[in-house]
Amino acid sequence: MSSIKVTPIKSLNAVIEVPGDKSISHRAAIMAGLADGVTQIDNYLPSEDCLCTLEAMASLGVQYEVLERLEGYGPTSLRIYGQAMQLNAPDVEIDCGNSGTGMRLLAGVLAAQPFQSTLTGDESLQSRPMGRIMTPLSMMGARIEAAGEKEGCAPMILGGSAERLQAIHYDMPMASAQVKSAVLLAGLFAEYETSVRQPAETRDHTERIFDHFQIDSTIDGHRIAVHGGQIPMANDLYIPGDISSAAFWLVAAAAMPGAELKIKKVGLNPTRKAVVDVLIRMGADIRVDMISEDSGEPYGDLTVIGGTLQGTEILPEEVPNLIDEIPVLAVAGALAEGRMVIRNASELRVKESDRISTVVTNLRAMGAEVEEFDDGMEITGGRPLHAAELESYDDHRIAMSFIIAGLFAEGETVVHNTDFINTSYPGFQHDLEKVMNPKPHFAIAIDGPAASGKSTVARRLAEKLGLIMINTGAMYRAIAWASIQHGIDASDTEGVIAMLDRIDLRCGVRDRGSIILVDGVDAGDALREDAVNSRVSAIAAIPEVRRLLVEKQRDYLELGSLVMEGRDIGSVVFPDTPYKLYVDASEEVRLARRSAEGLADVVSQRDKEDSSRKTSPLVVAEGATVIDSSEMTIEEVVDEAMSILKSKGL
Ligand SMILES: Nc1ncnc2c1ncn2[C@@H]1O[C@H](COP(=O)(O)OP(=O)(O)O)[C@@H](O)[C@H]1O
Ligand SMILES: Nc1ccn([C@H]2C[C@H](O)[C@@H](COP(=O)(O)OP(=O)(O)O)O2)c(=O)n1
Fold first, then answer.
1. What per-residue confidence (pLDDT) applies to 265?
2. Which of 277, 240, 231 is nearest to 45 (CA)?
3. What are phi and psi for residue 347, nearest 5 degrees?
4. Does 489 share its domain with 382?
5. Ligand 1 atom closest to the CA of 459, numbered from 1
6. What's the CATH code of the domain at 234?
7. Which uninterrupted H or E stretch holds 641?
8. Does the annotation flag 262 for ligand binding?
9. Is 452 close to ligand 1, i.e. is its CB under 6 Å away?
């Protein structure tokens, strides 16, 4: 069993992307397996929990193909061949591992089958209550039996009746998305309309994924109804990052003055983002940039600026929507000023561990002041935490929450038994290392006149060093090309400026090289045509054009370390980088190089305009080393560039 050691960090500056959402991944594997047709799932969570659900579907006759995997963990992109609701009897017991969601959702499906099957799981799962799903499923006429050592617990034996399930209306005694989903999934196999009413809102991934797979359901306040006999239709889906995994980093950054953290592509389903609302109420500075709604689930980027948090009271109606985040919010409470009150959360006692008791024990071990209640706890924040040797209690979220606490505790904190982290957050340790030892991205700036060999050298260096290569000339060319498309004269500066607001300019990276789309179009070779050559320098002289593009060029550094080539990279875009080169060649040589490419480029005219313009003219930037490539081969230039960069400390 492995342990993770952490020592406090003073700052946290990173851009990370957490793995795919666990709740959606389970549902995606099940629905794609039940659907008619082939579904491609991207950003599937490659965790043990979700792998178990995938294997469960496979043992019921669903075939799948892995398109991409996270080495050492599991599939992240896959294609599932749906069975159109016709499942086969499994040969073996179905093992759900540590996953309560997997077991309860699959129970809804298996209870409805004419064959018998057994659902089992690890020791922790075999002690979690299954009565809550057995009751409604039995009401539907399902045969279902809990054969575990502990009463009402797994292994569960389900199905095997030739009779079709009967539709029921079920008033759920507790707010549980797993119970709701188990009944609705069983309802797909039942006659007539099955409905559930939840006492409070719970996560609605099942309703959303039903819609994505073209299952008609009716949602009326807290009541959800579905007609049996429908066949889900295959439909590709992208799974956004799991906000419950993002929560660990949100707390770490929000409670650390001076921190700046960006978490990209996080699922922001309104029934899941209560953790963000609570942290904002605690005074956290969190910016939410929505990107889109894909496959029925909204997602976006979260940017957190660290500061001092204040304690808060978690409202009863918030509890179901942030139940998984309570352990790390309790850590936030210990780091905050004032009191943090968590009540109405007795559900925490039947999670992967008794999370009230395990959180209280670990917080006390670190010196926090905590009072334990049957249904929650009260934390008086502000006491400095000290390092401790802690147990994870076989609970992934307890392990991760206290690793975050360790980032703030004096001394070296050790959390034992951390293997379970893989059940929800494969790659957590990698992200932890990134946060603890951030390696800032750097830029290599290459400037020079036209056809001096800048792009060639930049491309080779990027390949050798494993960096991204950004061609900024293509960005100016794209604006020049767009002005032609819009029929704007190159001398019509006002017209060009007005056009900038009208076009959708996207700068991205493909195959580690830059790509520019104007209104969704990659102009490709058209960027190097004469019409563009003859107007690009005039367009590049417009300060508004330069301001827009320089900002986009600087943004590229967020994606990783890079080699960027152009005219003003060392002087304006990245004036602070120590790695600056100026690649030159005689005009004669440059003209010859262009004509060898079959291009009648107005190289000398452009050079004149680029060097003489007022804003950011082509100059040898301060600190840049000049390489005159007139008499050198490409290999010689690249070798020379490498040795100069090494001498500058690369
Ligand atoms: N040192 C060199 N020797 C010979 N040809 C070169 C050399 N460097 C670049 N070239 C060639 O010159 C042309 C222009 O080079 P390129 O890298 O596109 O220049 P730039 O990006 O500065 O406009 C290309 O065809 C390239 O293969
Ligand atoms: N950083 C940059 C890059 C290019 N430009 C302008 C000036 C150049 O004449 C055009 C086209 O640049 P590009 O690098 O594609 O030109 P060459 O490949 O060197 O001929 O864009 C600029 O002003 N600033």
1. 94
2. 240
3. -55, -30
4. no
5. 17
6. 3.65.10.10
7. helix 634-647
8. no
9. yes
